[in-house]
Every structure is written in structure tokens, then in C-alpha cells.
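User: My collaborator sent over this chain with a note saying "see what the structure looks like." That's all I know about it. Can you take a look?
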Amino acid sequence: MSHTPHELAEEFPDHAETIHRLKVEDAHFAKLFDEYHAVNRAVHRAETDVEPTDDLHMADLRKQRLALKDEIWSELQKA
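Assistant: Without extra context I'll predict from the sequence alone. Here is the result:
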């Protein structure tokens, strides 16, 4: 279990400028970005027991975060 937030700037450090540009210029990317951060914060709160949850819900949150990260990566590759 990791207690380190998975911020996109840390996940894709070489794409920080592209992420910023897409957040401003692309509504779909901005929505993905916001969704990722909402799910990521929920995972982090659960991992640190700020908002405890059961294992099934934690697994679902992590899968959702990974799916969003994959979609964000796909968008970064297109940009």
C-alpha cells in the first residue's frame, strides 16, 4: 500500500507543459484531469485512513484511477 499521492505532474514529469496546455485548451482533457484528481484524492484519503473504506471499494477506486491515467496518457500521446 502506498501513502504517496499519485499526482499527474509526478506520474508524467516530462509532460507538465503539455498537461497544462491541454487543461486550458481541451475541455475533455480538463474533465479527465479533474476526475483523476478527485479519484486520486479519494484513494489517498482511504489509504491514510482519513476516510477508511473496505478492500473492494479501494480496489474499485484504484482501477478507476488507473483507467483515467491510461486515458490521460493516450491524450498526451496524441498532443
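A starting point for your reply to your collaborator: The longest helix spans residues 55-78.
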